[in-house]
């Protein structure tokens, strides 16, 4: 059998590298669902932290392989993208918790929704990153649009009013309720049920609130990707580094969710740090032009990013601890 096609390039890397990565992700997800969470059960904070540590270790180990095989610059770009995407994902936790609360989804079934949500994210991010790579390759000036967008987003996060989304008025939820048969209550872990339609008296297919929660979470991720995809392209334009760092950061979000949801209030001051990171990532494209260099040094970019995020985490933990002690 001729395996020459495995060494053909696709989006800048050999096909075997892409195939190996996808196979690794499928194996991880199969192990997670088929072994670790074969039966529905509530995930405790301690289990969430252990599983998160495993996912973070896998992501860092892959980054170490990228560093060894593709070189230090690719390794540093991967780690920077991984850290930025992981931090951006913290914003998702608040929204996901709000969605689960709105649909009254118990912790017992939240893992199922998040698992299928991750599968959707893997496909959607591939499409968005593929489109982004095509645009950047064809029109180099798109990077400057991404950079300006990141700076604007960061400034809005720093100085804009932070409002909690009102899901009761969400147009997507209202659209689904108008267009589909929707049950008023959950039916265990099922996304769809067949039952009698009170309007016609005939059996019909109904969607459950669990499925609606899944759809809203998927759409929320697309909205968040509008920030994260330009951010990673501002770090590197290598589609392989962009996609792998994105997916490894997201894979662990499901595991980390159950721990973060219980202590999200301790990261109150992380959002300003994240806003500064976005401004920095957007600005460094323009700074490279001003300094007359091809690109901002990856090592310096990684160091500054880690320092800003670490400062935000430490400051959040210190300030919220003082607030709890004085309460």
TrEMBL record:
Similarity comment: family membership: Belongs to the TerC family.
Entry GO CC: membrane
Domain of life: Bacteria
Entries under InterPro entries matching the protein: Integral_membrane_TerC, Integral_membrane_TerC_rswitch
One Pfam family here: TerC
Protein name: TerC family protein
TM ranges: 15-36, 48-68, 88-106, 113-135, 141-159, 203-225, 240-261, 273-293, 299-318
Major site of localization recorded for this protein: membrane
Location in the cell: Membrane
Keywords: Membrane, Transmembrane, Transmembrane helix
Bilayer topology: Multi-pass membrane protein
